[in-house]
Design a protein that fits this description.
Layout (H helix, E strand, L loop, with lengths): L7 E11 L4 E6 L13 E3 L4 E3 L3 E5 L2 E5 L6 H5 L5 E5 L13 H4 L3 E4 L4 E10 L4 E6 L9 E5 L5 E5 L4 E4 L8
Parallel strand pairs: 8-13
Antiparallel strand pairs: 1-2, 1-7, 2-6, 3-4, 3-7, 5-6, 8-9, 9-10, 10-11, 12-13
Length: about 180
């Protein structure tokens, strides 16, 4: 088993209650957002107790679900703010040249000349394309830096086993 397999991967969090029968609203980071319902069991909050949903569905621009033993609005309200996560090995293998954000986080980033640009601390979506948020590196200390994640253009190679990503990006672009 790969070391990454037992890593917790956040998929979203519970944002509020829905109705009076114990249902709750979910902010999902999956694409499409209702895909969060397919990953079972969930690891909820800090205690990471595995739990399977009873029912779930898209509801307008959000996703709603119910859990065993959560039968009223007050019980659902006690879940608000809890993170929803799974283990990495619950996710299907990514397609060739496709990557889960959770696999990219923590990679060191160098440019084609071998200059250390930092480490990916998080990824974000801008609408046009995904963006890597870097910290550290020999060129910038603790300041966060943004580099577009565009394979074949700025991203030259990704080596998950080596923990390294190579970009076509100059250090002075970061200033």
């Amino acid at each position: 088993m790969d070391q990454r397999d037992r890593i917790r991967v956040p998929l979203g969090f519970i944002t509020g209650v829905y109705g009076i029968k114990g249902w709750f609203k979910i902010h999902s980071w999956t694409s499409p957002r209702e895909a969060i319902l397919a990953y079972q069991p969930w690891l909820l909050g800090d205690d990471r107790k595995p739990v399977k949903i009873v029912k779930g569905r898209s509801q307008g621009k959000t996703v709603v679900a119910s859990l065993p033993g959560v039968e009223n609005r007050e019980q659902a309200n006690s879940l608000v703010g809890l993170e929803i996560a799974i283990f990495r090995d619950q996710m299907p293998e990514a397609a060739e040249n496709k990557y889960y954000w959770s696999d990219l986080q923590g990679l060191s980033v160098e440019n084609k000349d071998g200059v250390d640009l930092g480490q990916i601390v998080k990824m974000m979506e801008t609408g046009a394309h995904d963006v890597m948020v870097l910290s550290g590196g020999t060129t910038g200390g603790d300041r966060e830096r943004l580099i577009p994640f565009i394979p074949g253009h700025f991203v030259v190679s990704v080596d998950l086993e080596a923990g390294k990503l190579i970009v076509d990006w100059q250090p002075d672009y970061l200033e």
